[in-house]
Design brief:
Number of strands: 5
CATH topology of the largest domain: Beta-Lactamase
Strand content: 15-25%
Number of domains: 2
Shape: globular
Strand order of the largest sheet: 2-1-5-4-3
Number of helices: 8
Length: about 230
């Protein structure tokens, strides 16, 4: 009877735990361990006849705290990352760019299939008669004119390494090379990021991805060839 009394008193807290458990917004291991510890402690305190309301509050704070931490560290899917991108101003687009780059898009698609840790990927190149712009990506924006960061990367050969404004994405923009080692554009590679993640390891993945493309590119014109 004492156990039943202790458990029933906190059915509302149990309901919260149940909802969080089934929402899959936090790890089940967190729910299991926190719930088990709190219930065991609550029952012992009930049997001893002490006040349990503080324990119930502590249990809720523990579970909801774990929920908040888990939410803060949640990683974006590719779809979520794309949906969270800012809207492009029409002035940033080249309205006259209509030339497709099927081979470049094939390289993007293959790279994404091989590297699931990459959430956003784009190839920047300069088609004949146009400025440098995005010619292939997994988020659209085909024809978006390159900004100063893109052009500096291509001009200097130095990668642009930066976190986005939310601190949840790490981008490595590096030069794109053909098989002879000639610079033919830039490659933007974006990863999920949280404090403590190894940026150097992400850079290595971006380098590997670029080198895989390099081996298949005989020249810049190959980007616009058939897939």
């Amino acid at each position: 009877m004492q156990f039943h009394s202790a458990f029933s008193r906190y059915s509302s807290a149990g309901a919260i735990v149940y909802m969080l458990f089934n929402s899959r917004l936090i790890r089940r291991e967190t729910i299991h361990s926190s719930w088990a510890r709190c219930i065991a402690f609550c029952v012992l305190r009930e049997i001893s006849g002490r006040n349990m309301r503080k324990i119930a509050c502590l249990m809720c704070v523990t579970i909801l705290g774990a929920f908040c931490v888990s939410t803060a560290l949640a990683q974006d899917t590719r779809e979520q990352a794309i949906a969270g991108m800012r809207k492009v101003d029409p002035k940033e687009m080249d309205p006259n760019y209509t030339k497709p780059a099927p081979f470049a898009q094939k390289l993007v698609d293959e790279a994404l299939a091989k590297h699931p840790e990459v959430i956003l990927l784009a190839i920047h190149a300069q088609p004949p008669g146009h400025k440098n712009l995005i010619v292939a990506s997994n988020f659209g924006r085909i024809g978006k004119i390159g900004d100063e960061d893109d052009l500096r990367c291509i001009r200097t050969g130095k990668s642009n390494l930066e976190l986005n404004s939310t601190g949840k994405h790490f981008e490595d923009e590096l030069i794109l090379l053909d098989s002879s080692g000639k610079t033919i554009g830039a490659l933007g590679v974006v990863f999920n990021y949280k404090p403590g993640d190894d940026k150097a390891a992400m850079e290595k993945i971006a380098d590997q991805l670029r080198d895989e493309m390099k081996a298949q590119l005989t020249s810049k014109s190959a980007l616009f060839g058939p897939a």
